[in-house]
Amino acid sequence: xxxxxxxxxxxxxxxxxxxxxxxxxxxxxxxxxxxxxxxxxxxxxxxxxxxxxxxxxxxxxxxxxxxxxxxxxxxxxxxxxxxxxxxxxxxxxxxxxxxxxxxxxxxxxxxxxxxxxxxxxxxxxxxxxxxxxxxxxxxxxxxxxxxxxxxxxxxxxxxxxxxxxxxxxxxxxxxxxxxxxxxxxxxxxxxxxxxxxxxxxxxxxxxxxxxxxxxxxxxxxxxxxxxxxxxxxx
Amino acid sequence: xxxxxxxxxxxxxxxxxxxxxxxxxxxxxxxxxxxxxxxxxxxxxxxxxxxxxxxxxxxxxxxxxxxxxxxxxxxxxxxxxxxxxxxxxxxxxxxxxxxxxxxxxxxxxxxxxxxxxxxxxxxxxxxxxxxxxxxxxxxxxxxxxxxxxxxxxxxxxxxxxxxxxxxxxxxxxxxxxxxxxxxxxxxxxxxxxxxxxxxxxxxxxxxxxxxxxxxxxxxxxxxxxxxxxxxxxxxxxxxxxxxxxxxxxxxxxxxxxxxxxxxxxxxxxxxxxxxxxxxxxxxxxxx
Amino acid sequence: xxxxxxxxxxxxxxxxxxxxxxxxxxxxxxxxxxxxxxxxxxxxxxxxxxxxxxxxxxxxxxxxxxxxxxxxxxxxxxxxxxxxxxxxxxxxxxxxxxxxxxxxxxxxxxxxxxxxxxxxxxxxxxxxxxxxxxxxxxxxxxxxxxxxxxxxxxxxxxxxxxxxxxxxxxxxxxxxxxxxxxxxxxxxxxxxxxxxxxxxxxxxxxxxxxxxxxxxxxxxxxxxxxxxxxxxxxxxxxxxxxxxxxxxxxxxxxxxxxxxxxxxxxxxxxxxxxxxxxxxxxxxxxxxxxxxxxxxxxxxxxxxxxxxxxxxxxxxxxxxxxxxxxxxxx
Lengths: 234, 287, 330
Fold this sequence. Notes:
The complex is a heterotrimer.
Chain A: E1 2-11, E2 14-24, E3 29-33, H1 40-48, E4 55-60, E5 63-64, H2 70-76, E6 78-81, H3 93-100, H4 104-108, H5 110-120, H6 122-126, H7 137-149, E7 155-159, H8 167-182, E8 186-191, H9 194-200, E9 203-208, E10 211-217, H10 218-221, H11 224-232
Parallel strand pairs in A: 3-8, 3-9, 6-7, 7-8
Antiparallel strand pairs in A: 1-2, 1-4, 4-5, 9-10
Helix pairs in contact in A: 3-7, 7-8
Chain B: H1 3-34, H2 41-58, H3 63-86, H4 94-116, E1 129-132, E2 135-138, H5 139-161, H6 163-173, H7 175-179, H8 185-207, H9 217-232, H10 237-257, H11 260-277
Antiparallel strand pairs in B: 1-2
Helix pairs in contact in B: 1-5, 1-8, 1-9, 1-10, 2-3, 2-4, 2-8, 2-9, 3-8, 5-6, 5-8, 6-8, 9-10, 9-11, 10-11
Chain C: H1 3-17, H2 27-51, H3 60-78, H4 82-106, H5 111-131, H6 133-136, E1 142-143, E2 151-152, E3 157-158, H7 161-184, H8 186-196, H9 198-203, H10 208-234, E4 236-237, H11 239-242, H12 244-258, H13 265-284, H14 291-306, H15 310-324
Antiparallel strand pairs in C: 1-4, 2-3
Helix pairs in contact in C: 2-7, 2-10, 2-12, 2-13, 3-4, 3-5, 3-10, 3-12, 4-10, 7-10, 12-13, 12-15, 13-14
């Protein structure tokens, strides 16, 4: 469904990703793990169009989307839950979700999507009038994921969903991501919390200093060596 | 000092504040979304005022029709400014952005001088004056005030209840996140510029009730508008609204107690004092 | 002597003998234009001390006005020699800079916000001058009272333009020297770091407010000095030519047009804008009032959009690219 081929990208003079190649099939849940500064966030920003790659192709359902602007890529069905959630702090939960359905196609199915999100995340339904900025980290993460769902995506990119959350919330969030996955969405998640994310996904890639070092099935990779590698970059 | 005069001044201050609020809110709206200050904003108002003048005085249109044209002209000018001047410099250094709109100010003021000379043009409206408890309230002040308050309410409803209005607020809070929602930033900028321009056009239609237009009108109201925006906290809509009335009150009362000019001077001195106390604006939180 | 030094020396020599060169009756005009260029370049240079580090002031008219009017008023009302008047003028401008700078810098007022605040202050000064018309002359301006002779060092009034020519040239060169000193100093690196990322700079121990205040004070003082010099030359002060948005923007335009980050940028920009406005004025005169300024404004907008690093900067970049291109032999 999504394939990155030889993608090189960076900021100004700095290159964060070198010839990255990876593949995600429809319905899969894939993780990209790696130490801090490996380029995981850059990877997602390139896929979602916030950064244009210097070279390489990003093929989604047969079409090369490299260099397309972000709002166009969303229209193709790629939703990005950014690092740090990036909610609209002064808007209510309901308004944040409304904004998620900006695309015309999404707006016509607005009621349906909203119902689905509220069913998946009952907490959001309860707090629909609350300002997003005043919610707890875990609730914000839920809202960020819900907002992404509102755009009727085919694949969801999640950037460090466990960032800044207490361990209990981390478990809850991963549980929620699992539920989203069960709804049929394809997931690409970038994470530091290797242990947790490997329990969630089918396959994983290890990204180190901008390059893919290893890839494999989650079950096989959940061995001590690999985990140590990812955490320490050894 | 006869208390009647003070009361009259105080009320006139409030009436003036309404129109000033339109200017301040329009400027803030654009800044909040685009992060760029249109230094030439009040000069756009000046252009629309000329439009109202020519349509109503020279061509004999009814004033309300000329006013509507002013609204449309304002919106179109807003979009034009965005496409021609702002869009090319969206990613430039702040100084270049400031200079671009500053250059526009020069250009508009001199073009107006060239086209229409420095003569003051006024739209003379003969409207009744009401007297309540010894205070004279001319309709030329009441009508603009009422319309401006209606407009502010309409703006509020637009920003909070409509989809595109909420989107505008969202962009001002996080531009990048909004593009992840599938919103093309350019579209939102254009709508914002149109709304900002519309408010300028409306302000122009209301200002002709009381003021004559000339090429350097921007010099009269521009700095005042900037000061109101800074006083309320740049980008802060509620702050701008409140600050408009504070400034207009000071100007009105100071004008009656001392002199018109000193009224302005005192208002500006208050502005400078506020910069020490709360550089972030009156509603800014203390760090 | 290096080639650059040689060129500079030759140019300097040319400038020094210019007033004595026969010009067939044009001398007064040429000197007048040259003086204007030197004084406004000096002022532009002062502005660029702040501008190049991201402190974009759109209200330098405030310092100009405070400077010029302080010494002019002290002379007219108290016959205080402008030599001392200038010192007091600089003091007043510095005081204003400190009084504004401290709250602004402590509360991180930067970018557009800072530009707007300075713009407002420039206007406040202008309006104050106009409001206090009883002693400032208001919008009609104030003529410096005459010292009664063609040559008064005490009053800094000289009928011979050549005196002002050499004086303004000296100021201009001093301005270049100061700019160069700042460019080579530790302060420059600190200010550039601050301009790039204030928080990071502060975390490394750079005293952000102190540096910003320092450069602002220097800029304000020098600008005020330029204002005094101009006032003495023209023997007349006017709130619209020496304060307010108009003159503030003109200063900034000239510097940005010429190139804000280069030593000669202000001179190039000022020379060009002066030539442009003089040329347009001669071409159109009073026939089409406002046409000259309209074209001026339009050109400025176009320049800002298409030549963001200024004329001098763009030419320099283009030359540098050529010299780095291996296909082109030096």
